[in-house]
Amino acid sequence: MNPFEERSLQLNRRAFLSKTALGLGSAALGSLLGLRCFRANDKGIITESGQGIEGVLKALHHPAKAKRIIYLFQSGGPSQLELFDYKPLLQKRRGEDLPESVRQGQRLTGMTSGQDSFPLVGSQFGFQQHGQSGAMISDLLPYTAKIADELCIVKSMYTEAINHDPAITFFQTGSQQPGRPSIGSWLSYGLGSDNENLPAFTVLLSRGTGRPNGQPLYSRLWGNGFLHSLHQGVQFRAAKDPVLYLNDPAGLGRSGRRKMLDKLEALNSMHHEETQDPEIQSRIAQYEMAYRMQTSVPDVMSVEDEPDYIYQMYGPDAMTPGTYAANCLLARRLAEKGVRFIQLYHMGWDQHENLPTAIAKQAKDVDQASAALVMDLKQRGMLDDTLIIWGGEFGRTNYSQGTLTDTNYGRDHHPRCFTMWMAGGGIKPGIVYGDTDDFGYNITENPVHVHDFQATMLHLLGIDHEQLTYKYQGRRFRLTDVEGHVVKDLLA
């Protein structure tokens, strides 16, 4: 059988109807993919329009307060008892066993479930009231304390996950099971990007000094899941090549690269005509984005033009690429360029032992730069429409893991209550929301679940969390799964 006869057999009634339907729907393909960077030429071939990326949402569900998010994720679970949740009772009852009436049979991790006792231990660091809200903030965070009136401190966060992998995955994707799209991917899919030369979703990583070889991270946290690959997060690294595989190979110039991409696009477009696989369009878009990023990435990464007072604001570590402070400065530059979702991960908060020493180092890593980011955006008039989030995947226990001494202790994972803070982007400033009992173990007022947090975040961006969905394997998925409600008390 010759190729022409084989091809004619492939065009049976079912194939004809399916391909015709897809052909008629090609005009809507950009909408389905969240793209506006392709159009059909007079030959019906999809080509780049140069207009950037458009989200699947043709209009916001309600007026947005925020245009972008900078999420300062503190990986490992910062101890709320050392930073924000002041509990003098724990000092008074230091060494006493945690009452069962407080624990109420809560399951523990395998790291402390076998302990014979659970000795209570309070923070050995001082706390002071700050701002008109009177927020109690640890002496470990002097710079954060200065911006207390800009912060919305939520002391009543809770989650079901008790171990790192499911807990971080839950916060970043809305599910404890891997495979779902991350927050940034959902926003790229729904809202698109304001800058055609940079991805809508970028990722920056730093390793803290508190526990430098602690809990690792994994790239699926910024993966696109079942969404098109165009929406995955792009990691920016502190290296000669900030984005992997972006630069041209040796001996290939810009004109040669352009010709190669044009030929590749023509071949991919022909293949798309035959298969109608939408992922092919995503790949074409990624090739074109990478080409434009060859000039846009060096520009955004070149911080040499920043004035001295900016480096003084962010702290001495801002001069060292790859540090938390340097990444906060890069986050501000990416925000200025129109990047929709900027994710910072700072590792090292998993302090099961030697907590007093480790958390002091870790807090020093992030304190000045986090506060500087808030104030830097404010002085540029960007804080009002930029939502900044600071927090980890869960909190720490009020009892000591391992041996409690006069100067040392550790804390295990604690999902029942922990603290996060937010600033800007339509969040009510200068408030402390929610409360915990005197033992710092259970929530007593205004609980906020992970899905509530996610729903509120989307609301600030003008999105109804129940309406941003994607149909996959017969089910409509969303970031908040089947739960979550907007915490209106947090809205300005």
From TrEMBL:
One of this protein's Pfam families, by short name?
DUF1501
The UniProt entry, under InterPro entries, shows: Alkaline_phosphatase_core_sf, DUF1501, TAT_signal
PROSITE patterns referenced in this protein's UniProt entry, alphabetically: TAT (PS51318)
Q: What is this protein called?
A: Sulfatase
Q: Which organism encodes this protein?
A: Phaeodactylibacter xiamenensis
